[in-house]
């Protein structure tokens, strides 16, 4: 259960051992949302959605579907939880930025313009005193610190990379190779998995058998 505010990184190693990052496979977030529906200490859930090459084909749709299922379970218990989402992406991303935003809003999630605005909105919902300008996204950012340190030297290979483009050897996740190929990048895919699918206990047993 939740006894305080919590930030959970579902991309951390304890959640991704033997499975893709949730940016690629969002099912781990769906499972966690359904577990949250069983907790009586949850008032607001804040999620971020990542778009771009290499990410899930429709991460906003996946979150909206999971949120709808979570809300169904909450209604059975006579409870309500507010959902806030942010999308990190651009209009030209392959997942269709506008469509992902629309699906989230249609499924009842509040869409914030930034992570900072989302956090302030969540804090406001649970009773914190927040400047209205900050909730609207119009708050002035603090002055960025100035530095007099010299810029790092540009590696000699970097201009060649921009001029000729990358040549990639892709290990493991075939969808990365497919997306690189779709962009016209030369790519060689190698079908590889970590020993015991990343399960450290099984991997240690296999090591003893050698």
Verbal overview:
The chain has 210 residues and is of the alpha/beta class. It has 2 domains: 13-135, Succinyl-CoA synthetase domains (Rossmann fold, 3-Layer(aba) Sandwich), CATH 3.40.50; 158-209, no CATH class. It has 9 helices and 5 strands; from the N terminus they run ααβαβαβαααβαβα. The chain has a 3-stranded parallel beta sheet with strand order 1-2-3, sandwiched between helices. Strands 4-5 form a two-stranded parallel ribbon. Helix 2 (27-36) packs parallel to helix 3 (59-76) and helix 3 (59-76) runs parallel beside helix 4. The longest helix has 18 residues, at 59-76. It starts with 12 loop residues before the first helix and ends with a helix. 17% of the residues are buried.
Give the arrangement of secondary structure elements:
Elements: H1 13-16, H2 27-36, E1 44-50, H3 59-76, E2 82-88, H4 97-106, E3 110-112, H5 115-125, H6 132-135, H7 158-164, E4 168-171, H8 174-182, E5 187-190, H9 200-209
Parallel strand pairs: 1-2, 2-3, 4-5
Helix pairs in contact: 2-3, 3-4
Region (Disordered): 134-153
InterPro entries: SUCC_ACL_C, Succinyl-CoA_synth-like
Pfam families: Ligase_CoA
Short structural description:
The protein is an alpha/beta fold and 210 residues long.
